[in-house]
Amino acid sequence: MIMIVVPKVAFGYPDVGSLITGMAELVFQINNCVGMLIFPFMFSLWSFCNTLRNENSTMQYFQHMEENFYGLDTRTTFLPSLFVGLLMLPMIYMCGLTGGVKMAMIVNMIGYCAMCFDLISLKLQEVSRTGTHEKEMKKIVKMHQDALECTKLVEKQTSLVLLLQVVLCVLIWSFILLFFTFTGVRNSQSINLLVLFMFDTAETVAYCYSGDVLSSAGSLVAKAVYDVNWESQTAAVQSDLQLILLRAQRPVGVTAGKFSFMSIALFGNGFRNSQSINITVLFLFDTAETVGLCYFGETLFRERPVGVTAGKFTFTNLKLFAGIVQKTYSFYIVLKDAI
Questions:
Q1: Other C-beta atoms within 10 Å of 271: how many?
Q2: Which residue, 31, 173, 228, 232, could crosslink 274 as a Cys pair with Cβ 3.0–4.6 Å?
């Protein structure tokens, strides 16, 4: 308010162009600030309306992020909720700005490398149309070497960042799948997770797509060399073309921690792995629940000659659990052979 609204409204502008620009910036900032405040305010308002309709319900205040802030009662008390909200708002803007700057910086660096390879391909196409002198060919060789060195430098600077992005993106997808599996869609928690999902997914897609563009641009250099009428060139030009072709055989791109090139295929594998993690967690949860019920039934049967049954068919005990595991494995073998 003090840094943006008051100077723009109270102290005027030197000309009409500055006035229009300042008002546009003010509208942009108001849109961002009010948009960030609307979500928790609307959910808190719905909770207040529900409290008015139902005397037994408790007023709930919602925050931008789900956390217990040093023991303060931010969910049911107004002043702690307001205090934490005012503290978290600038942090949320800072995190969003940092994420946007990181994405723009990495995508632009990768795009610059891809543009260098595209320029080399255009130069080689010009060679195939008009022919060239040995001096011009030497420049193309130098451009290709510089593009390769630039790509190596970008890959070195971004490798660990991209690895962290892929790993954390898979974890966020797994958390979101687990959340909707156990709780469904409800209140501000669902909105927060959906925002995280969209932002992280968009950022990962941008990196993977840029990596694909860079790899494609690097491979097109080799194709451009093949398309040059090398048999009609001089021996020196043919030697330079051979050097470019030899260098272009190696795959070009940025990697996630030296493990895999960033590509749309990697993005698909990451999403599939998040589903596998979700299924594994659900399997462990259901298995633990079944073991707990069987152990409780066996303990009860040992203390007394009674127990709990599974649909009146058999008593729940560890022997029943072992039988379930055996039958499940046998069913798996049958399905595997059938498929």
A1: 15
A2: 173
CA angle 102, 201, 147 (to 5 degrees): 50
pLDDT tens digits for 322-334? 777 777 767 767 7
Lookup result for tokens 């995190």: 95
Closest CA to 147 of 249, 237, 218: 218
Quick check: 210 pLDDT over 80?
A: yes
Tokens of 175: 């958390």
Task: List, as one string, the DSSP characters of 192-229.
Answer: HHHHHHHHHHHHHHHHHHHHHHHHHHHHHHHHHHHHS-
Instruction: Please determine, for residue 31, whether its predicted confidence score (pLDDT) is greater than 70.
Output: no
Cα–Cα distance, 25 to 41 (Å, whole number)? 24
- The rounded mean pLDDT for the chain is 75
Structure tokens, 189: 């928690």
Is residue 219 within 8 Å of 198, Cβ to Cβ? no
